[in-house]
Amino acid sequence: MSGPAPPTRPGLPWRLASAAVMGSVGALSRGFLYGLNNVEVTGLSNLLRVLDRRKDVENRQRGLLTVCNHVAVLDDPLIWGILPLRYAVNVENLRWGLGAHDICFKNKFTTTFFSLGQVLPTHRNWHSPHGGIHQPTMTQALKLLSSPREGDGPEPPFFSTDGKDSHMAPAAYTANRNAWIHVFPEACCHQNPDSTLRYFKWGISRLILESDPAPEFIPMFVHGTQHIMPEERGWPRWAPRVGKRFRMVIGEPTDVDKVFGHHRAAWRRLVDKGDADLLRDGQEAVQLRIDVARAVRDEIEKLRESMGLKPEEDETAALAETWAKEPNKRKFRSPVDGSLINRH
User: Fold this and answer.
1) Which residues form the Phospholipid/glycerol acyltransferase domain (predicted)?
2) CA-based end-to-end distance of the chain
3) What secondary structure, in 3-state letters, does 124-156 show?
C-alpha cells in the first residue's frame, strides 16, 4: 500500500509572501541597474530561453544550474535585475541560492525574509563547525536540483542545519524539484583590479556529480558590481554607488553531461562500490571534486576573457592550497593576489 503523496506546494500565504519578496526585490534591482547605471548584458537570451521553456513546472524534466563569479556583497540580488519584470514574480521559475547562515539567518526576521527569497541557510567553515560540503543544506540543494525518485516517500517538511534550528524544507514540495540553483563557488567577494578568479569550492562539484538527472548548465561572468559596492567605499558605506558600468556575460546553456559527463560516470562507478566512506572522503572522490570545480572555473574564465579582460597568468590560482595562506578573517587584503576579500 503506497503512502500519502508528497505535497505539491507550500500554502497560499507563503506563496503570496514569497512572490511579494521576490517581485519587489527584483523590481528594485532592475530599477537600480537600468535607472542609475550603464548596463551591458551579453547572452541574456540564453538564460531567458531556458526560463521560458521551464515555465510549466509540471513538465520540467531536469533542473537548471547557473554559476557566476562573486565580486560584491550585492551580487545577489542585484545581478537578477537583468531579468525583465515579467519573470520577477514567478517564484517557481526563479533561482534558489545559498546564503550565509551567520548573516542571512541570524534572527527570526532575516530568516523569514531570506527563506521567502528562496535562499538556503549555509554554514561556512570560516565561521561555523557545521560548514562543509556535506552539511544538510547541500542535501536540500541537491534534492531541489534533482527529480523526485520513484518510490520515495514524502520528504520531511523541515530540516535542521545544526541539530538545533529548524527551517522549512523546500525539497518537500514537488513543484520545487528540478529547480534552478545558482551558486557563487568562490564563496566570498573577491575584488581584484584584473577581475581574476579565486579557486572554486567543492560544493559546486557535489551539485554536478550527484544531481539526478543531469541539469542544464549556464556559466556567467559579472563585472562592475565591485564599483557599485567597492570594499574600500567610504561614507555612506551602506549605499551602493551609481553611474557605474555594469557588464555581464551569460554563456550558452548546455547539458551537464556534455561538459562533465566523464566526471559523472566516474562518480557513478564509485557509487556502485557501495562504500559511503569512500564517497565522502576517499581519494578518488576528493580528486573528482577538485577536477570538477576546476573545470567549472575554466568555463567562467572563458567568459571573463571574452570581455577583453587580461588572460589569467597564474595557473595555481585555481588550486585551494594557493589560497590556504590567507588569514581567517572576515575582511582582509589577500596575500595571494592583493585583492580585497569580504567573507560576508
Assistant:
1) 64-225
2) 49
3) CCCCCCCCCCCCHHHHHHHHHHCCCCCCCCCCC
- Separate counts of helices (H) and strands (E) for the chain: 11, 13
Amino acid at 282: G
Mention every residue, 6+ apart, whose C-beta is less than 8 A from residue 176: 9, 92, 96, 144, 170
pLDDT above 50 (res 1): no
Q: Indicate the helix (H) or strand (E) that contains 255.
A: strand 254-255
Helix, strand, coil shares of the chain as percentages rounded to 5?
45, 15, 40
Round to whole Å and give the CA distance between 168 and 155.
11
Asked whether the beta carbons of 341 and 334 are under 8 A apart, the reply is yes
Give which of 281, 253, 290, 284 is closest to 268, Cα–Cα: 284
DSSP state of 272: H
- Give the orientation angle of helix 12-36 with respect to helix 108-116, to 10 degrees: 80
Whether the full predicted model's pTM is greater than 0.70, yes or no, is: yes
- Grid cell locating 318: 585555481
Residue (of 26, 33, 75) closest to 245 by Cα position: 33
Domain ranges of the chain: 12-97+132-255+293-342
CATH of region 12-97+132-255+293-342? 3.40.1130
Q: How confident is the model at residue 153 (pLDDT cuts 50, 70, 90)?
A: confident
Beta strands 245-250 and 216-223, pairing class = antiparallel
The pLDDT tens digits for 161-199 are 999 999 999 999 999 999 999 999 999 999 999 999 999
| Angle between helices 256-272 and 203-210 in degrees, nearest 10 | 80
Q: Nearest Cα to 95, choosing from 76, 112, 71, 122?
A: 76
